[in-house]
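Worked example 3 (structure in, sequence out).
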């Protein structure tokens, strides 16, 4: 009952010209106050769909949603668009990979940042401006007063991402969702941005749902990890267990893909062959069986359940032996 966010059996289907396709097939997880949970997996596994569902940003006309998303005890699916808009940006904020999808190119940084305060606080115009400048300073933007007058295209990628973080953290949200927040940045800037996010979230005791395909970022940031494949959680573990004893063959494959500066390691770099199945392509068995080096006959016939072992749970027949015996 202590969860800030509790997602229960969330299912999302896309209505397309090729029929109704399953994008999320019943995912459940919780996020506690102050905790960082990483959602990992290749693109097309349902990570972004999960975050958009939580934010209430999936189009109602082209998607079908079932299951429950409880945030601070409120069922988000039951809220109207107006109530959801009030929560979004104030209690739940989001940072995207590409700042230009959220920064408006025709407005100055100052105007956009002040707008966050206008929407969600009772501050006066003067106070909004002061807060905006203070927030830019907090995220390490130099010459904050000048930057207030500039347009997004005048800033570097790293600076734009700092502005995004300033906008997201402006109202001290309880939950921050970051979707590939540093993927577009070079390694040095990436490390600075991650450190900044960690620092801000710790100060504000914000919970972070971090979406990434980069396990290096996960190791740096997360307390717990959810590995997603084909719209399902295939492994859930605390970060130490995941790195020391990954259970699911997909997790093991992802871990082998981490680039290492060590040349010897690099030679052993062993990406997972093949790709994530298209939505609707798998109707039975384990969705990973086409790429799994350990697939057995059973994997073709029956879908494995998520079975737990202490803090670690995995969806794979290799670990569901007791259930086989029953
Ligand atoms: Fe591989 Fe079978 Fe486990 Fe799926 S259930 S991950 S195919 S061993
Ligand atoms: Mg994505």
């Amino acid at each position: 009952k202590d969860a800030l966010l509790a997602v229960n059996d969330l299912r999302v289907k896309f209505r397309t010209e090729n029929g109704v396709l399953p994008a999320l097939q019943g995912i459940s997880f919780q996020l506690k106050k102050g905790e960082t949970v990483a959602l990992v997996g290749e693109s097309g596994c349902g990570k972004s769909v999960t975050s958009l569902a939580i934010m209430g940003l999936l189009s109602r006309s082209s998607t079908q949603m079932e299951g429950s998303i409880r945030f601070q005890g409120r069922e988000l699916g039951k809220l109207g668009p107006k109530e959801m808009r009030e929560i979004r940006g104030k209690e739940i904020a989001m940072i995207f990979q590409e700042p230009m999808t959220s920064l408006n190119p025709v407005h100055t940084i100052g105007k956009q940042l002040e707008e966050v305060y206008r929407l969600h606080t009772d501050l006066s115009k003067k106070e909004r401006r002061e807060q905006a400048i203070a927030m830019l300073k907090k995220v390490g933007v130099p010459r904050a007063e000048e930057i207030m007058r500039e347009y997004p295209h005048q800033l570097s990628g790293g600076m734009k991402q700092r502005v995004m973080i300033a906008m997201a953290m402006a109202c001290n949200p309880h939950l921050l969702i970051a979707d590939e927040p540093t993927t577009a940045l070079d390694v040095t800037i990436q490390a600075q941005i991650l450190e900044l996010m960690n620092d801000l979230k710790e100060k504000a005791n914000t919970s972070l749902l971090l979406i990434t395909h980069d396990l290096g970022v996960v190791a740096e940031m997360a307390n717990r990890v959810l590995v997603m494949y084909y719209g399902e959680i295939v492994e859930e573990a605390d970060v130490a267990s995941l790195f020391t004893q990954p259970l699911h063959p997909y997790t093991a494959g992802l871990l082998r893909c981490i680039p290492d500066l060590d040349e010897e390691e690099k030679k052993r770099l062993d990406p997972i062959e093949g790709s994530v199945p298209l939505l609707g392509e798998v109707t039975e068995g384990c969705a990973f069986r086409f790429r799994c080096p350990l697939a057995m006959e059973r994997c073709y016939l029956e879908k494995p359940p998520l079975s737990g072992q202490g803090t670690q749970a995995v969806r794979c027949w290799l670990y569901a032996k007791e259930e086989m015996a029953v």
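Notes: The longest helix spans residues 187-204. The pocket of iron/sulfur cluster (ligand 1) is lined by residues 248-249, 286, 288-289, 292, 294-296, 299, 304, 316-318 (CB under 6 Å).
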